[in-house]
Amino acid sequence: MVSHLQRKPLNEQRGEAKIVQEVMKQDSGLQYVGFRLIGLEPGAAYEETLAGDECCIVALTGRITVTEGEHVFAGIGTRESVFERKATDSVFVSGGKTIRVESVTAAQVALCYSPSLHPLPTKLIAARDVGSEQRGKYQNRRTVHNILPDSDPSASSLLVVEVYTDSGNFSSYPPHKHDRDNLPDESFLEETYYHELDPKQGFVFQRVYTDDRSLDETMAVEHGDVVIVPAGYHPVGVPDGYTSYYLNVMAGPTRVWKFHNDPDHAWILDRD
């Protein structure tokens, strides 16, 4: 049985776009985070008017042209597969604006939503400006691309990051959470994980659990799945032979990423 926190690919055709995944606030139980993944054939277009949400449009694969009003970002996108492991281009658009995404080549485009708290300029987040970092050691190693981190004031509530975890490693580990509005110690941020695997027939394990275990779900997550994290710790484990990619969308009442490690497992950080 598939967990209520796990969404399988939808692959529903709407106009010229294929809706590959859709996790929106009205049907996910989330208050702050929305996620949609669309597929476009060459020359196809997707248009949407943002109401109360801001949006980060991530050129996941392929090349696209994004238009918002007088802003035209032509032919953006840097990779044919996320597993090229290089950063890609994105566009941030504030609430109340209309976006048009047109494909130059076959493309997959991630649309990451959160509440638009105040108007901000439309902005290209060029691949060359995306910070990349290595985190962890031993079997806790991963590569992180900070598309829209909390240090970037381009958004009012939205955070977006992508993570690569190598074969046999864990990420989002030691288990951490950000489900209490208790700054400066911890922030409340909902989160979604969009997963891809290389090779595609692989799987990862993701557990989502709270201290009191009122929420405790462990999922075998396959290529193209989305995992919803409304609260709790949420580690990911990658079996031997496969590489994991995921795109995270986070948002909450305050645009700060401050997490709390599970005290039962925080000791691993103190190893030499």
From TrEMBL:
Asked whether the UniProt record includes Isomerase among its keywords, one would answer yes
Keywords attached to this Swiss-Prot or TrEMBL record, sorted alphabetically, are: Isomerase
What pathway is this protein said to act in by its record? Answer: Polyol metabolism; myo-inositol degradation into acetyl-CoA; acetyl-CoA from myo-inositol: step 4/7
**From its record, what is one biological process in GO terms?**
inositol catabolic process
- Say which enzyme class the record assigns: isomerase
Task: Write down the Pfam families for this protein, in alphabetical order.
Answer: KduI
State the EC number(s): 5.3.1.30
Function summary? Involved in the isomerization of 5-deoxy-glucuronate (5DG) to 5-dehydro-2-deoxy-D-gluconate (DKG or 2-deoxy-5-keto-D-gluconate).
Protein name listed in UniProt: 5-deoxy-glucuronate isomerase
